[in-house]
Structures are given as C-alpha cells and as structure tokens.
Amino acid sequence: MGCSVAAESSAPEVITVFRGGRAGTTVIKSAAAREGEYASSQRIIDSNNLDDLFRSHALDSASPPSPFISVTTDPAVARHFAGPTGVVNELRIPASRASKNQFNNYVVPAGPGGQLIPGAELLVPNYIRPSEFVRKY
Fold this sequence. Notes:
With 137 residues, this protein is of the alpha+beta class. The chain is 25% helix and 29% strand. The radius of gyration is 17 Å and the shape is globular.
C-alpha cells in the first residue's frame, strides 16, 4: 500500500508593501544603485554591518547613498510620501527581501485628520523589479 504525500510548495512567501512615488515609475533603485549600479549597492551591504546601514538609512537615505529602498506596510504612509501629485505603488515581494528597520521610529501625519501614525518601514536591498509592481493608485 502506498502513501501519498502532498507536494510542498517551493514558491517563496510574498508580502504586500507600499511605496509613494512619481507616476510612471517602473523600476525602483536604491540611492546607492542609482549612483553606482546594483553591484556597487550590493558591495555596500556585503562590506558593512547591517545595523549600521539601517541606522544610517533611518537618518538619511541619500547621503551617504543607502543600498536600501524604504517601503511600508501601510498604504496611508505611502500616500503621505507620494504627496499630492504622486502615486502609491502596491508591490508584492518575497518576504525574505524585506527587513524591518528597527532604527526608524518615526511617525508621520498620515492618519485620520493628520493624526501621527508609525511609518512601518521595511527596507528592501538594491532594487524593486518591474514584475513586483501590482498596481498604482
């Protein structure tokens, strides 16, 4: 008598995250990848302490150029960063590519009536692929 075993899914767990941005964006690169391409951005990650990089990103992602891209689990936060003329990008990315930035404890006025709410920041290394865009609104 044989047994059947359900096949395990090899697909990675994906999560939905959001990022405010400009209309027409189809690829999102980290500040470091925009300056020195992806390999340069990855070298920064490989040759530094992640806590130091996360701490630095929380203070300023442009100077020095961060190898990470900020995303959030809260679409209201993304709307705040998009501004009045921007769009909210809904993204589906492998959960393994997103890390909570424990050094970012900032709040933003994105709640009802401008109430302060947590930024709920996750950091994604180097880039967000066109295939990870779900929709814009």
